[in-house]
Amino acid sequence: LHARYVLNLLHETRKHLKQLPNISHVSTCYSEEVTVCGDLHGQLDDLFLIFYKNGLPSPSKSYVFNGDFVDRGKQSLEILIILFTFLLIYPKEVHLNRGNHEDHMVNLRYGFAKEVMQKYKVHGKKILKMIQNVF
Length: 135
Known about the structure:
Belongs to the PPP phosphatase family. By secondary structure, this protein is mostly helical. The protein has six helices and three strands. It has one domain: Purple Acid Phosphatase, chain A, domain 2 (4-Layer Sandwich), CATH 3.60.21.10. α2 (44-54) links the parallel β1 (34-37) and β2 (62-66). It is globular.
């Protein structure tokens, strides 16, 4: 995805998240199903498998992602792009909780910062700074 669109997505995500409280209460009626996921750690195939087995987020399919989206795996940025896009499309059905890997110092140590810089050589620093702002 072109850097311009990544930055736009990050800007819109940040704007949306700033409107939310620090703690979100998610509830559902007994007939609804909620899929809770955690620790994707840059493993895009895991996210695709979850969507394959449980369906894509939609008004009838809610998800809670419990952090640790990035680091370790090679496709952390792609995971963020997908999760942030679904968050903006379905703000009542997609919930993102921050994990300990959504932290700049952890990203420097476990590879996410390096991944962003390799994928976006020219705009990498700007994208990384905006991601840290979203986190």
